[in-house]
Amino acid sequence: MPPRLTDLRPVLPILLGASVMLSLAMGLRQSLGIFMPPLTRDIGISVSDFTIAIAVQNLAWGLLQPLAGAWATRVGFRPLMMSGSLLYVLGLVLLATAHGIVGVTLGAGVAIGASMACTGSAISMAVAARPVPAALRSTVLGIVSGAGSLGALVAAPIGQMVAQSYGWRVGLAAFVVLALVMLPAAWFAGKVDRLPLPTPPGGVQQNAREALGTALRHKAFLVMGAAYFVCGMQLVFLTTHLPSYLDVCGMDPMLSAKALGVIGGFNVLGSLFFGWAGGRVNKLMLLGTIYTVRSLALTWYFSSAPTPGSTLVFAAVMGFLWLGVAPLVAGWIAETFGLRWQAMLGGVAFFSHQIGSFVGAFGGGLVYDALGSYTLAWQIGVALGLSAGLTQIAFAFATRPRPPQVVAT
Predict the structure, then answer these.
(1) pLDDT digits (tens, 9 = 90+) for 34-54
(2) How far is CA 167 from CA 24, 171, 234, 235, in A?
(3) Closest C-alpha to 363, from 39, 40, 59
(4) Does residue 390 fall inside a structural domain?
(5) How confident is the model at residue 409 (pLDDT cuts 50, 70, 90)?
(6) Most CB within 10 Å of its CB: which of 22, 93, 212, 381?
(7) Looking at the domain assignment, is residue 408 inside a domain?
(8) Radius of gyration of the chain measured on its C-alpha atoms
(9) Is 284 inside any structural domain?
């Protein structure tokens, strides 16, 4: 009899812990852009100064993610995730008390970036993949990713309302309180350390270097990683600069919070759908489709002046296509290379994503400061997105499925 979702009751604490931790880690981070207009005006820094901090965050996250994945395999997920949760709280405290670019960079950049390597999607997806049967893995990853999308739905409106009433520093203090919930969530998710890993066929275990070498010789892994760069560039450009773009266009400041909240809400639906679809359709094909449709949506929205209606529709479309990438990437890596080094290999692919995030955050700020407009920035994002999406689709069509070199399911 095939496994059913009801068979997962014994591991629900692990899956719920991973979901809550991911939800808060992603939701709080994605909502930092709502503080950019009042923060930059209050402490006298430019938009590009703020985006330097966000760019540093993404670069630190990407650089440390493979190391965090390898550490999780060697010493356990619980110490990694608990340390990351504490660091997240510290980063928000540093940002809330900042009086210049140094405090903003240390808080929003270095501390939160390092903490995301320990609590973000690569680690959460690896935790969720371990305790479930292979037949349910893609669906479960979609569910956890979907639950992880709820953070922005809660954090953005709360942060915006508190900041409008009491100031941006108090708004960030509210984020600190929310971040404290990550600690018990990480503790429960860490119960996955007690579960044994399945033995790979033939009893052959790869070490970290061998697993990395296998992945880097796999053409599909390399193409996926290159396309992942564009994914990061587009998404972080939006989370960082959409509030500023709407502010420049004279829109109600609350609209940006509503848009981020809508992204979070539709993220749930998209993650559930792509998690389900990933168990039935070529995952690489789905990834290419996501990147292509995102680029078309960006073209439609930024080609004309924003309105409240168009902004919320755009947010819904982008939200549906947002974290649906995570279960597809994590599921493909798990089924292709096995579970033992999944977190590390996911981190390697994610490093490319974060280089793109660095470019999206910092490059968008540079373009705006130089030209006083985001037009060139979104046009570059669309061109690269279409190229990446169509290349990923073409490669999925051209590549015949072949047995993976190493499998541990």
Answers:
(1) 888 888 889 988 877 887 888
(2) 22, 6, 29, 27
(3) 59
(4) yes
(5) very low
(6) 22
(7) no
(8) 20
(9) yes
Q: Which of 13, 19, 66, 54 is nearest to 323 (CA)?
A: 19
Q: Which residues of 296-314 are buried (b: 16+ CB within 10 A; e: fewer)?
A: ebbbebbeeebeeeebebb
Q: What's the rounded Cα separation, in Å, for the pair 64 and 40?
A: 28
DSSP-assigned letters across all residues of 29-85: HHTGGGGHHHHHHHHT--HHHHHHHHHHHHHHHHHHHHHHHHHHHHH-HHHHHHHHH
Q: Identify whether the C-beta of residue 279 lies closer than 8 Å to the C-beta of residue 134.
A: no
Pure H helices in 97-167 = 101-104, 112-119, 121-129, 134-147, 150-166
Q: How far is CA 378 from CA 52, 240, 302, 324, 368, in A?
A: 18, 13, 7, 22, 11
pLDDT in tens, 74-96: 888 999 999 999 999 999 999 99
Q: Looking at the 3D structure of the chain, how many domains does it have?
A: 1
Which residue range is the domain that position 84 belongs to? 10-183+207-398
Angle between helices 112-119 and 77-96 in degrees, nearest 10: 150
Rounded to whole angstroms, the Cα distance separating 294 from 273 reads 16
Q: Closest Cα to residue 92, out of 154, 170, 37, 148?
A: 170
What is the rounded distance in angstroms from the CA atom of residue 336 to the CA atom of residue 404? Answer: 5
Buried/exposed 347-371: b ≥16 CB within 10 Å, e otherwise: bbbbbbbbbbbbbbbbbbbbbbeee
What distance in Å separates the CA atoms of residue 319 and residue 323, rounded to the nearest whole number?
8
Nearby residues of 249 by Cβ (< 8 Å), 6 or more positions away? 305, 306
Pull the structure tokens for residue 258.
């509503």
pTM reported for the whole predicted model: 0.76
Given a contact cutoff of 8 angstroms between Cβ atoms, the answer to whether 60 and 113 are in contact is yes
The pair of structure tokens assigned to 55 is 């760019």
> The domain spanning residue 28 has which CATH number?
1.20.1250.20
